[in-house]
Write the structure tokens for this entry.
Amino acid sequence: MSLWGWLWLLYCLHVPGCVRGLYGGGKGACRLIAKQVSGSVYRAGDVVIGGLFPIHVEAPLPEQEFRSIKEYSTCTIFKQRAYRWLQTMIFAVEEINRDPALLPNLTLGFLAADTCRSEGITLGAALAMVTGKEASVVGTECGTTPEVPVIIGDAHSSASMVVAQTLGPFDLPMVSYFATCACLSDNLRYPSFFRTVPSDAFQARGMAKLLRLLRWVWVGLVSEDDDYGKFGVQLLLQELQGSGVCVAYSEVLPKLPSKRKIRHIVDTIRGSTARVVVAFVGFTGHSGALMEEVVRQNITDKQWIASESWVTYSTIAAPMNLPSLAGTIGFALKKADIPGLGPFLTRLHPDGDYQKSDPFLRDLWEEMFGCSLGVDLSMTLSSRRQCTGSEVIREGESQYADVSQLRASYNVYKAVYAIAYAIQDMVACRPGDGVFNGGQCPDIRKLQPSQIVHYLRGVNFSTPVGESFHFDMNGDPPASYDIINWHVTPEGTAEFVQVGQFLSSEGSDDQFHIDMDKVVWGGGSGDEVPVSVCSADCPPGTRHAVQKGKPVCCFDCLSCAEGEISNTTGSVECIRCPERFWSNPDRTACIPQLVDFLSYSDTMGVILSVISVSGATLTAGALATFLYHRHTALVKANNSELSFLLLLSLKLCFLCALVFIGQPKPWTCMLRHTLFGISFVFCISCLLSRTVVVLVAFRATLPGENLMRYFSPTQQRMGISLCTLIQVLICVLWLALAPPRPAERRGREARGPRVVLECEVGSVVGFSLVLGYIGLLASLCLLLAFLARKLPDNFNEAKYITFSMLIFCAVWISFIPAYVSSPGKYTVAVEIFAILASSFGLLFCLFAPKCYIILLRPERNTKKHMMSK
């Protein structure tokens, strides 16, 4: 079966009564008894271009029984705007036919049909065009109407999809002027679909840029229940992902909306806190009903964002709607001034010739002038007056004759020229250089649709108004939008003012510009940009906390945590302050943290330094006293050499406390604990040696025993050195394996956060061994001194050692919990206090009584007194 046979079969399956007409007429009676619902306008030509226009927007109910032909099945609700599109197509065809440079030896014709904005009627009209089997053709020879190889249309995305899917397998090209659904850019599903109107993908991108620019983060969406509305909203939502813009509601206007449904949608708009409403709706009566309800409910606090379908639609911008819709902003198709179109539109007159060639003229005339043409029973019963025939169409006085906003009309104009230039390229083909089999060129008298598709893809021309035009690989044109703002004139009418422009195309950067000074804002905002947010921006020092179960734009403001700031309004997250910085009380700025350590400038540091130096001075005084009176009985009896070593070690114990004061540095951290550990071990070793000597001297009571020969001064020095050497080895291993080092610790006080500089022990084991060894020697010394506490005579050295060790052990046992629980620099202060307290305990208990006798009671500093009981 041929191409036309398949299309004829499709058409017959689509139109009721077709098959019965095919088989019921007999020979010579080829008769199609199906009746077209819509009318058509036809003019013959060498190449006939089809056109699909929604002259009416309400189709009659379809025939359900298929037993009879429904009479008077006409479409209703005439649209002047769509009729202007049809006339623009006729104007472009006539202009091309007059052009001696473009298709000079070829005449273009046209066949335009009314689609009634119905998918079924649109498909039926398209199939009738391409098969040449219109219902109006009745006679013995079927197919007298020439086949249409290319169609301009449709204006409706859903209808364009239906027709494109049906005609696409046969490579029949369509060039739409108003079908903007991004789904039609799918070159695999719609390989022969072209359009002169940009895809909604670009419009959605521009809308998203506008919303982000004006910081409208809480918006409502209203769309129609068709592919235009569904895909438009879907694309907008995709563009808004991750931008911080949230949707408060998304309402869908059904194809057959009831008053209850429209009232529900408007109630949602009125009750929402979103002040911005994005409306992806068409120019049908449904959108008009929606706006009527908005005006009825007196909703005047909303900023409307219009899609290209209705932003320049004067019917919606009627004066009665402006209290609610003034300030509307939207994206309109690029406007152009087509020379000569205005007079062409106003040439019409309802005389006999025009009415015969144009079935829509009567509807136009009656719609425009509010009168009735001819005799009609329904009109007689109505209040309409009879038209006089003297009415004149004047430019700009009606929507049809308004040429100030030629946008969709300009797209129709470009579609005709695109087809003409494609045919021109086919005419210019030289035999042998063609792109088809064997270099063949197309036969202009028998154009194949696939050939037109091929040449349409390559057209690149300038329109008579000077715009360069071409199709991309998906059949889409470059996107160019005017940003329109609705102003109210002093007369109370709407004025569509261009306030910006948006240019976009695949593979290039977008160009978005809007002149904010020209914009009149909606929602009663006047000169100020309306604010549309779910939650007000959080003040500095706080962050967003998304409310449970709500979009991210709805949030509570929580104060930033300590150490974090937010110095701008509307911060989503708080920023962590850098090292050594902290947040101020308002959480708006990072301030340097207080650096805390025990320094010589602190009061406590000064006091401890004075005490340390005082203890060292007292020790030096005691040493000088003992040295000066070294020949006296008391000094000799106390082993002067051990006394000198003990006083020297005590002086080191006092002075080592000074190393703990000041900013920790690597060398001071290593010196602190090692000097402390070795000094105290040296001191206690001397004390342990003295205790052993005293105990042995007074406990060796058996005859012939001479135990003192084992505790001579040399052995005592060796014992002290051995005990001290063990501590030195522990400290060397500690420093070699894991030495103490400076460290920072976060702290807090009343004045705010702080950085505590301290010395980490490095190795807990090493530190424990140092302290444990000191404790072991001290405990052993205490035990031996306790055993020798009741020595005879006036020699009370064991008692003094016992008391000094008790004080030493008590101090260091108390030191452990105090050291652990003390904050910041007080940890170091506690350690210094333990060093000084234990050192003073040893100094006073061991040397204060002796110095008292030496300096104040010299009479008791005799051998006789010491040996007496």
The radius of gyration is 52 Å. The first strand starts at residue 40 and ends at 43. DSSP finds 25 helices and 29 strands in the chain.
